[in-house]
Amino acid sequence: MEDTYTMYQLEDTKRKPYLVSVKLNNTEINMEIDTGASVSVISQETCKQVFGSDHSLEKSPCSLRTYTGEKIDVLGKRNVTVIYNSQSVDLPITVVKGTGPSLMGRDWLHKLQLNWKSIFKIEQLSHNQEPEKDKELQDLLRKYPQVFKEGLGTLKGTKARIYVDKDATPKYFKARPVPYALKEKIEKELDRLEKGGNIEKVEFSEWAAPIVPIVKPDKSVRICGDYKVTINQVSKLDNYPIPKTDDLYATLSGGTSFFQARSEPGLSTNCTRRGVT
User: Fold this and answer.
1) Which of the four, 15, 131, 203, 263, has the lowest number of CB atoms within 10 Å?
2) CB contact burial 202-228 (16+ within 10 A = b; e otherwise)
3) 222 and 263 Cβ atoms separated by less than 8 Å
4) How is the chain split into domains, by residue range?
């Protein structure tokens, strides 16, 4: 029977995680103290550091899920000798796929007597250094204003190419009907994209894909192109494997800066009820 455990790891970029340094099989590893994690875990990469060429793992009877319900790929488990201060204990560790942080969960916290005063002192020293980091940030903002200004940035010196079969016949799809409830929002979004230089009207085009309006959580509309009926059918595929969502989350874990790329001008031709853009 498979037991399901939840990993309640929520991160605040303004607060550094509480870290504790332990030795796993005489390899020093920094672990995040996570009282929301039912079990202690290390990534596949950390497992290689700790166990070297011995990659043997026992099958784990547990299933792990994140706070939002996504399933975490569990590779297996094994026992490890944990050394902390004067304590030495053999404890089970769960190995998960990816490169995320090592988490000390409740199963280990019940067995180890941590020096909480020392842990809180280190965190307080780190927190007191934040004003200096804020000053560095402000210096960077002043030094590179063009990089951090509002609006859509421009990538210069590089062009994107879509490789199409030589014998491909251009496909032109007329605009699809849109729900009346979304019509005004779509018009406003098209105006915004045109004023921002993201799209521009053209008189004629051999290629045109219909748009697909997506309602975002804030009730605004994102304009997407349905390229599966046009260019996707004749373009040459990139064989690079698309990573799974869990792999992306593991890679992004611990990150402090993220951005979202929006529609870029001159990248595509879409067919709307207002004409070709």
Assistant:
1) 203
2) eeeeebbbbbebeeeeeeebebebebe
3) no
4) 3-128, 159-276
Predicted TM-score (pTM) of the model is 0.41
What's the CA gap between 66 and 74, in Å, rounded? Answer: 12
Looking at CATH, the fold of the domain delimited by 159-276 is given as HIV Type 1 Reverse Transcriptase; Chain A, domain 1 (3.10.10)
Do the bridges between strand 74-84 and strand 270-272 make them parallel or antiparallel, or are there none, so unpaired? unpaired
What are the pLDDT digits (tens) for 74-96?
899 999 999 998 899 999 999 98
**What CA–CA distances, in Å, run from 207 to 135, 198, 211, 265, 273?**
50, 18, 13, 16, 16
- Burial readout 163-194 (b: 16 or more C-beta within 10 A, e: otherwise): eeeeeeeeeebeeeebeeeeeebbeebbeebe
In our burial notation (b when 16+ CB lie closer than 10 A, e otherwise), range 43-76 reads bbebbeebbeeeeebeebeeebeeeeeeebebbe
CA distances from 182 to 55, 177, 230, 274 (A): 55, 11, 24, 14
- Give the residue carrying structure tokens 């290629």: 207
Helix (H, G, I), strand (E, B) or coil at 206: coil
Architecture of domain 3-128: Beta Barrel (2.40)
**Residue 74 C-beta-side C-alpha neighbours within 13 Å:** 25
pLDDT tens column, 147-178: 777 777 777 788 888 888 888 899 999 889 98
Cβ 275 vs Cβ 201: under 8 Å:
yes
Task: Give yes or no for a contact between 201 and 209, defined as CB atoms under 8 angstroms apart.
Answer: no
